[in-house]
Structure formats: C-alpha cells, structure tokens
Amino acid sequence: MNDTKPWGYRWRSSRLLVVSSITVALFAETFLYGFLTPILSYMLEERLHLAPSQTQSYTTALLATHGFIGLVSAPIVAHLAERTPSQKKPLLIALAGCFIGTLMIALAPSLWLLFLGRILQSMAGAATWVVGFALLANNVDKKHLGQSMGTAMSFVTAGIVGGPTVSGALLQLFGYWAAWSLPLIVLVLDIIARLVMIEPGPGYSNIDALSKPAATSVPSNGSPEESTALLSDTLSMVNPDESGVESKHNLKQEYYRAMLSEPRVLTALANVVVVSSLMSGINNTLPVHLRQAFGWKSLLISTMFFCLQVPNIVLSGPSGWLRDRIGIRGPTVFGWLAMIPLLLLLGMPGDAHFPWAGGHAAGKSIFTSSLIALGSILPLVRGVGAVQLAYVVKDMEAKDPHIFEANKSNLRVFSMTEVGYSLGMMLGPLLTGSLFEGVGFFYMTVALGSDFLALAGYLALTRSPRSLSLNIQAVDTYA
C-alpha cells in the first residue's frame, strides 16, 4: 500500500484550493483582456511614438488578433488536453504563457513585440478557459459543480469589469508601471497557487484506485491482486480497436450534424456572436471616441466601462429569473429592440449632425445616461445563447440518449459557445473599427442597430423552450 503523500496533501488537494486556483486563473484571463483597452492609446502614441490617426487602426488589429487566435487555439487546446493525464500542468503552462505575454506587452518597444505578446496572451487565455473548466468538472463532484461554476463565473465577471476600470485609473493616478504591476502580481500569485495545488484525480487518488480497481467484484483478501492484474491485461489487449474509434468518430459527426441542423441552435450561436461582437466592438472604439468627442483621459474612460458593466452585474440575477418564469424568447427580443434606440442615442453626442447633443455638458450627460441604460438592458440578451444551447441539448438527450450523452454533450456545447464567442471577439473589432474610421461613431451605431433588429426578428420567429429544470448559473456568463 502506498501511503507516501506530499506534505499538506489534504488541504492542497481540497476542493476549496482547486476551485480557488481555477477561479483566480479565469479572473486573470478576463481581467487582462480588458485591461489593455483604456491604456492602449497611451502605449501606441507615447511609448511607440505612433501618430494619433493610427491609434484606432492598431487598436482594431490588436483586438481582432486576440479573437482570431482564441478561435483557432480553443479546439487545438481541447484536443491536446484530452490526451494529457493531468490537467494541472497544461494550466500551469497556460498561466506561465500569460505572464510572459503580459510582460512582453508591458515592455514592448515595437509593434511586432506588442502583437506577439497579445498572441501569446490569447493562446494562454484559450487554454485557461478550456483546461480550467475541465479541471473544475473533473475534481468537483456533481452536487457542488453548479456552486463552484457560479463562484468562478462571479470572478470572471469581476475581471471583465475590473480590467478596463482599474487600468485607466492606475495609469492616470500612479503611472505606467504602477498600472502594469497589478496584473503581473495577480499572475504571480496564481502561479504560486497552481504550484501548491495537487490535482486529486489522476495523481494520488487514482494510484489508490489502480491498486484496488475492482472493489465491487474483488474480495478483500490477498489473492485478488493477481486476478485483477490479469483482468487489466486482458482488457488492455482488447481495448477499443479501429472500429471502436470509427464508431466514436461517427457518433461525434452525428452529434454536430443534429445540433447544427436545429434552428434553435443556430439562433443561440447567432446570439453569442452578436453579443460578443457588441462588447468587443465597444471595447475597441470607446476610448478613441471619448477622447475625440470630450477630450477625456484614461481615468474617465475607465469610469465609462464601469458604468456599462455594473448594471449588467446587478441585473443578471433578475434577468435569469425572468427567463425562468416566462421563457427565453420574449425577454431576449425585447432586449435587442430596446437596445437599438439606446445605441443610437449613444452615438449622437459629439456628432455634427446633432448640435443639441454637442455641448460638453449635455453631450456627456446623454452619453453617460445612454451607456448606463444600455448596461441595464444587456442582461436580457447576454447569456441567452449558452442557456438556449443547454436547453436544446436537454430536449435532444431525451430523444436520443445514445448520441447525446450528458457529460460529452455539455463539453461540446461549451466548446461550441467558446468558438462563437471568439468569433464575435474577432468580428466585432473588425466591423466597428472599419465603420468608425470610415463613417464615424454614430453611423457605426446605426449599423450595429440594424444587426440587432435583424437578430430580434429571427429570434421572434424561432421556437424556444419555455422553461426547464436547469441550473444556468454556470453558463450565464457567456454571450
């Protein structure tokens, strides 16, 4: 019997430390995505000495690159992680990559190094999401999984809000390196937590399980070990052959064929892409627009991100309750339609076509009020895509449990949502950046409003489930 366990094994492999480590990793990833946005103008113009007229183009390129690399990396990371016995090491590698990428961005003396750092950050971020949630699912029992996911999602939301809010304030109040010291410290703390953490699954608990693999069918005397070893050898000789692998491959193809031929799935993915495009598009254009329209610096720009996200956090719970009570379609269609006039109003201050909104006092008030109102409506559409996908899978599992096995279905739904989210993160900056530079901020909001109107019409015509007994806390962060 092997009792040699490392020092502090009990607390180092505890659910609390596993969840805490993953939660900090997810917080760091979302924190870093938005952290760069308010201070990027300063970096491009003051440190890299680029002309202000080039700032928007490079901001668009940098954010679109992040989305594209995440889109490509997520499936590759998932494929490699499936073949890794322990998920602690890939998560540690991802965090180390994120630290190096962040340091490269902070130190970057040239554009190519800035882009290289962002690419490394994006690859590491995709790995953190995929491997982190797999580790969470593998090491937390089912009755605690919803609570653990909900805790992780709360910190993810805090990272989304905190990144752009904190960076601009630190830059203006304390300087460049004081601003970058915070994410670097968070990453160092997370690396330490990851090194301390022991993954209880494949490491030590499985050692015990392998020494007694058939507890239900093997007596407690000494002879079973021989018969158990023989049984293991026999099983290994007849492990899945090519036909078994082919059967698994066919089941996977059938799963995606069934899902992607379902209109509700396509609607849900469209919702994911549009919400992600909206959020990444606002991140892309807001700093430059506010500087041009009102002459604001990083501190006030960060405050605007805070005004957008805080109502979203406060009202996410009531919005989820409303969806449970009356269904998904009604609140979502209303949300998209209500956001159209608010988005148009957001684009009017600073535009020459609307002199009544051009005064500094009036323009600032209109812009801030519109942004807060937009953040208040956002929970009605944000998270809907992932929730709808989860509902559809529940329906389809009941019809064909052979293809739609619960655990694999949930993992595949998560990967589909991740791909849609990354696609929006790539398309949003490309669309808004080109429109902002070509026709201005107001007409950019007109184009986005047209997309919202089209999506609202499609949602109104698509059948959606009214309500199911489903804990949506874990998926409600997604677009």
TrEMBL record:
The Major facilitator superfamily (MFS) profile domain, residue ranges: 18-468
UniProt-annotated location(s): Membrane
A Pfam family: MFS_1
Keyword Transport: yes
Classification via InterPro entries: MFS, MFS_dom, MFS_trans_sf, MFS_Vesicular_Transporter, Tet-R_TetA/multi-R_MdtG-like
Membrane topology summary: Multi-pass membrane protein
Keywords (A to Z) from UniProt: Membrane, Transmembrane, Transmembrane helix, Transport
MF annotations from Gene Ontology: transmembrane transporter activity
Top-level taxon: Eukaryota
Keyword Repressor: no
GO cellular component: membrane
Main localization, broad class: membrane
Membrane-spanning intervals of the chain: 16-36, 56-78, 90-113, 119-137, 149-171, 177-197, 265-282, 294-314, 326-346, 366-392, 413-435, 441-461
Record-stated family: Belongs to the major facilitator superfamily. Vesicular transporter family.
Protein name: Pc20g03900 protein
